[in-house]
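A reminder from the course coordinator: this example appears on the midterm review sheet, so study it carefully.

Given structure:
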């Protein structure tokens, strides 16, 4: 499992797309934190109302709005690539399917953990305080997004189709989620309970529900993966 995990982790740093995504995330994070720092110096009373969490505004908005899009672009073929290249049969004969699945998932998860830790360290340079809650919130949200991406890659056999479905989902799902959260209409408001955005918006300990959400999606992914023939 850990060999697969390490391979996925290192592989995400080798592509041009990954470099572009990392540059965007780091750039937006630092520029937003710097802007907040300047705002704090120029308008201390107004900026104080935002608190230190205001420094993380850039990375939080970026991940919540474009997180699914980034994950699709980098990891849409995390499972079906191996199936398409006929290397999955080799993997499942060398180790258990659970190890293969968790190795794939954790490899990508650790990649995003690395990115988020660096982002929050950049924020710390300006805020003088490490925002642990912000890091936990973004990682729990990303855990759900990664688990959904894993399910798509198992269900859809062709990497090209996964890319199309993933991008479409990354555009539609956030829009429906925000609509459900802020709408009072019964025909859409129920949908908020199916979206990780809702539990993140509740803040406090409610963000831990996203951890349970990700776990249930991983159970679904494992059930689907066991049923596949390679």
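Designed residues:
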């Amino acid at each position: 499992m850990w060999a697969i995990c390490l391979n996925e982790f290192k592989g995400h740093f080798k592509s041009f797309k990954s470099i572009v995504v990392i540059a965007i995330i780091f750039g937006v994070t630092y520029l937003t934190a710097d802007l907040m720092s300047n705002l704090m110096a120029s308008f201390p009373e107004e900026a104080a109302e935002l608190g230190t969490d205001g420094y993380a505004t850039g990375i939080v908005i970026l991940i919540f709005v474009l997180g699914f899009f980034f994950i699709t672009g980098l990891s849409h073929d995390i499972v079906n690539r191996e199936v398409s290249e006929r290397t999955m049969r080799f993997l499942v004969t060398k180790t258990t399917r659970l190890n293969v699945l968790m190795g794939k998932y954790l490899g990508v998860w650790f990649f995003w953990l690395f990115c988020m830790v660096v982002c929050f360290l950049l924020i710390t340079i300006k805020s003088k305080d490490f925002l642990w809650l912000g890091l936990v919130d973004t990682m729990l949200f990303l855990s759900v997004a990664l688990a959904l991406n894993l399910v798509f890659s198992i269900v859809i056999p062709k990497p090209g189709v996964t890319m199309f479905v993933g991008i479409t989902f990354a555009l539609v799902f956030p829009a429906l989620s925000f609509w459900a959260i802020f709408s009072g209409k019964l025909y859409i408001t129920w949908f908020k309970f199916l979206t990780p955005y809702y539990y993140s918006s509740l803040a406090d300990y409610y963000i831990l529900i996203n951890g349970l959400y990700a776990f249930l999606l991983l159970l679904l992914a494992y059930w689907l993966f066991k049923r596949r023939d390679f």
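The first helix runs from residue 2 to 11. Residues 199 and 207 are 5 Å apart (CA to CA).
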